[in-house]
Each structure stands twice: as structure tokens, then as C-alpha cells.
Amino acid sequence: MRLIDGNAIAQQVLAEVKERVAKLAPIVPHVAFVRVGDNPASVSYVTKKQKTAAEVGMKASLQLFPETVSKEELFAHLDALNADASVHGILIQAPLPKHLPETEVFNRVSPDKDVDGFGTQSIGRLVQELPGAFAACTPAGVVELLRRSGIETTGKHAVVVGRSLIVGKPAAALLLAKGCDCTVTIAHSRTKDLPAVVRLADIIVAAIGKPRFITADMVKPGAVVIDVGINRVPDATKKTGYRIVGDVDFDAVSPLCEAITPVPGGVGPMTVAMLMKNTLDACERAQARG
Ligand code: GUN
After folding, report:
1. Does domain 24-112 have CATH number 3.50.90.10?
2. If you take atom 9 of ligand 1, which residue's CA is the nearest one?
3. CATH architecture for the domain at 137-268
């Protein structure tokens, strides 16, 4: 079994981004974050993304809204960010409160600034395999991990478990696209005999959002396992009262695998690194457009 070190690979990506950012001076790539409410996981993700932006020489701004913000007020802010030429990327941290329709909010972001890749144009361009499509950061991180770990994907059967807009659907599109060339199955909560489907996989991408959902009986020996899950489970021995586990039962599954990502330290840092890369791409394209 080989452990795929997401921290180390994310550092490689960030070092490359930092070099390209330096070349843009005096222009500074700027990513604008929008957070609604105080979901503890969202607070921690956005803080991490802001810190990383600073480390690679980018500007990060943050607008906070209360849980009760109206769609109109939020849209007015997004329209202002869309119109602001000094802003290159816009990211609205999900999840959003129930009264804000997530896809409608994501679609309000200008396609040129959609560094999260959740808008209709970004998803469409990804599926059309057009160059320069913004791929959602977590799926892009999954594919980058596979590529930089030297894992062969051509002709392999990838089973993506989970069909979310944020991970499952775009992950499937990326794995299917030229360059990865996988045979792709998307399994989800309504899949009949899910263990049997997952057992077919050469590559498992676990993005269900349920702690330790993928158990050893679902894994073909020699499979590559990418664990996208970030779940907080109660742990009285920790100061915080919780610890983070993935969607894969790591202890039972890892001995079976050719390679596996740990949680934490696998996909998580790659998501942040790919956001920086997308923001840099957005900035470079804005300069090219003039
Ligand atoms: N919530 C969980 N993952 C993500 C992500 O990659 N982007 C945004 N905007 N929200 C998320």
C-alpha cells in the first residue's frame, strides 16, 4: 500500500502558482470570498483559503453575511464583485441556508470569475472539454493527485460514490475526459447493491459525506482509493471534542489498496491549492483580455 501525500503534492502546486503570481506583478490576483452564517466547517475552510492565498502572494477579501441575508442583498453584492475589475475570482462557500437556492446563487457569479466551477457555463464547458473551463476545485484536486502520483487512469474503471454538484458530478466528468480516459460509474444513495458496484472499481472516489461508509468488503484488492470525505466525529480525547475522518474506513481498507489518500492530509489541501490555481488562471485570462 502506498500513501498518497496530499500535503506534499499541494505544496508542489502552490510553489508553481507562487512563481506565476510573482511574474504578474504589479498585478495581484484577487479572490473574493463570500460566507453566509457561521457554519464551523465553513469558517475553518474559508480561513484556510485566505491564509493560503496570502502565502502565494494573492489578495483575498471576505464579505460576511448573516444567516438571514436576502437573496436580493446577496445578489447585489455578487453583482458588485462581478463588475469590479480588481476581483478575479469569486467563491461563495457552501452550504448556504435553505432560503438561498444554491445553483441560482452560483450562477450569479460571472463565468469569467467562477473559480469554484459550479456555474452552468463552467460545468457545460467542462463536459464539452473546452480548454480553459474552470473545474471545481475538489474534483480538480482529485485528478491532480492521481496525475502527480503517477497513477495510470486510461481505460481504468473509476467508480465515483456520490453525485453532488460540488464533487461527484464534476469528478465523473473530469475522469471521463480526454487525458484521464477512465470508464466512469457514478454510484449514489439509490444505487442498487452499491457494494457490488464499488467492488468493480480500479479507482474509487468516495464523496458521500458519511464517515467510514466505504468498508473493506466494497474494495477490490489493488484498487486506488481517493477519499474526499471530511467528517467530524465526536472524540472525547480531543480538545475540540471531535476528530476528522473520511468516507473510507481507512484502517480496514488501506491494507487492500495499491494507493490511498489519508484524511486529513489527502484531498483537502488539494482543494485549496486548485482554488489558487483557478484564481491565477482567471487573473491571467483577464489580463489577456485586456
Ligand atoms: N463546500 C464544501 N466544499 C466546497 C468548495 O469546494 N467550494 C465551496 N464554495 N463550498 C464548498
Report:
1. no
2. 93
3. 3-Layer(aba) Sandwich (3.40)
How many Å apart are CA 103 and CA 111, to the nearest integer? 13
Residue 10, all three cell numbers: 499541494
- Tell me if 24-112 shares its fold with 137-268: yes
Ligand 1: list residues with CB < 6 Å.
91-94, 116, 137-138, 166, 271
Q: Which amino acid is at 185?
A: T
Residue 193 annotated as catalytic: no
Among 33, 34, 96, 138, the mutation site with the greatest number of ligand 1 atoms within 8 A of its Cβ is 138
Q: What is the pTM of this model?
A: 0.97
> Is residue 12 flagged as an active site residue?
no
Q: Which of 39, 103, 108, 116 to mutate to test the pocket of ligand 1 (most atoms within 8 A of CB)?
A: 116
User: How big is the chain, counted in residues?
Assistant: 290
For 213-231, give the DSSP string: -B-GGG--TT-EEEE---E
Name the one residue in this structure whose C-alpha cell is 460576511.
64
Amino acid at 164: S
pLDDT tens digits, 197-214: 999 999 999 999 999 999
CA dist list (Å): 239 to 235, 242, 244: 9, 8, 13
- Choosing from 114, 116, 247, 249, the catalytic residue is 116
Q: Convert the pLDDT of each residue in 47-58 to its tens digit.
A: 999 999 999 999
Please provide residue 180's backbone torsions phi and psi, each rounded to the nearest 5 degrees: -95, -50
Query: Where are the domains positioned within the chain?
Result: 24-112, 137-268
Q: E strand or H helix at 42, and its extent? A: helix 40-55
